[in-house]
Structures are given as C-alpha cells and as structure tokens.
Amino acid sequence: MKIYTVDAFTDCPFKGNPAAVAIVDEIPDDGTCQKIAAEINLSETAFVEGLGENHFHIRWFTPKVEVKLCGHATLASAHILHQEKLVSSQEIRFESLSGELKVYISPSDYTLDFPLSKTEEAIEPSSMASISHFGKIIQVSRVEDDVIIELPSEEQIRNYFPCIDELEKIDCRGVIITSKGTGYYDFISRFFAPRVGVNEDPVTGSAHSKLAYYWQKRLNKSDFKAYQASERGGEIGVSIMGDRVNLSGKAVTIFSGEWQVSLP
Fold first, then answer.
1. CB–CB of 151/179 below 8 Å?
2. Which parts of the chain are coiled coil (predicted)?
3. Bridge partners of 167?
4. Residue 45 β-bridge partners
C-alpha cells in the first residue's frame, strides 16, 4: 500500500492542511483503517479504492473516528490520482458516506463539488456556558453537526487562543469561528474539532460547505474568497451553485512511501 502526504488548499509546502492519502486495491476493514490513521496521526487519512475509470470509493479517518465528509483530504486524493496518472479525465467521481462527490481538475487548481449545507438553527449564546470565554459574540448557529460562532472582528479570529477543554464540551462535531473579512477575503474562519481528535484543523473544506450558506445570507452574494486563519493558513475559493457548493484550491505533494506492515 502506497501512502502520500499532501498539503491541501495551498501551493506552498508546509502551509495549508496536510492529509495522508492511501491508494489501495481494496479499502481495509474499519479497525485497520483506524489504526493506520492513528499511526499517521494527521487530521485526516483518506483511503481510496478504484471502482472503474475515473471512479473511486473514498473513506476518511481522523486519528480517532471515521468522518462523513472531508474536503482537504478529498482534494489531496484528487491531486495524487492526477499526479500519478491514475485518471484519464478532468472529472473524478468519488463514492462516499456523503454520496457522490466530484472533483474537477484545471491547470491551476482543483474544484470540489460538495453538497451545500442549508440547515441553520440559531442558538442563544447565553444558553452555552462553554462559549463564554469568547467574549462578545454576534451570533451562534448550529448547522448540521457543527456550531458556527460569528465574532465581531477578523482580529478576534486571528488572535483567539483555543480553550480546548471548553470547546470539547460543546455537543457537535466541530466549532467554527468566523467573521466578515476586512480586505481581500470576504470572510475568515478557524475550525476546532477536539471531539473527533482534531484540536484545530488548519484548513477545512467541509466547514466551508456550511460557511458558504451562512455568509450568502449575510453578504447577499454567492462567490467568495475565504481564508482559514490557522497557524498554517489556507485559501479557499467558494461558489454556490444551487444546492451544491464548489470549493477550489491547490495542493502540493510532500512525501510518499510504502506501508511496511502486512494488513489483515
């Protein structure tokens, strides 16, 4: 089994979000996938199995659990398939726990075609003691399995020092903090998911499938330049197309190697 590490949503090594990509003849059983992901210990490891021409099965594992959707590891997987000439088309189809996902390859970047998350439930901030450490909050919303916390300023997002113990108390997959951008970017964000083994994710495609609808309603537009302000940082182009969202970014291969242990 060959494994690659890729920095996604960047064209600079050691920026963006690193993901592991395992290209396999057959995806191993759940327990083996989880052990491999824990051993690699990146925020996500993608396992990719061929189903037909330009058609693949993909699963994503954090060091702790399998997840239903992961943007940066999907982009990383498309990048490796393209780089290794394992696809013959500019369109790749992935079968996943979130249904069929498509990635489009252009000379400049990769575009993920993901479902747009439109469900938003407002939450009264005073009802959540675990978020009191944020100080002033504009709005709190639950979007599917994540919680979005809008803060007043980009500076507050960039300077926030995460209280992981408090974030882990919030009943959700992940906590997204976001604000309107003040310059080149329409909005910025950060993403924390200690409940699934990721204290802070550097750049999170799946979070932007939720942020897209959130900011569409507030900025009255459908195309955005977004920045995830983690220490590594990363840029995402976001475009809403009906009930889908296109997430665009670049990728850089960092490492490749062979798994040396026999699999069950």
1. yes
2. none
3. none
4. 20, 61
For residue 19, how many other CB atoms are within 10 A of its CB? 30
Phi, psi dihedrals of residue 37, rounded to the nearest 5°: -65, -40
pLDDT digits (tens, 9 = 90+) for 170-221: 989 999 999 999 889 999 999 999 998 899 999 999 999 999 999 999 999 9
Is a pLDDT exceeding 80 seen at residue 263?
A: no
CA–CA separation, 221 and 216 (whole Å): 5
In DSSP notation, 36-83 reads HHHHH-SS-EEEEEEEETTEEEEEEE-SS-EES--HHHHHHHHHHHHH
Is 144 one of the annotated active-site residues of the chain? no
Q: What is the average per-residue pLDDT within 3-23?
A: 97
For residue range 125-178, list pLDDT tens digits in order: 877 777 878 888 999 999 999 999 999 999 999 999 999 999 999 989 999 999
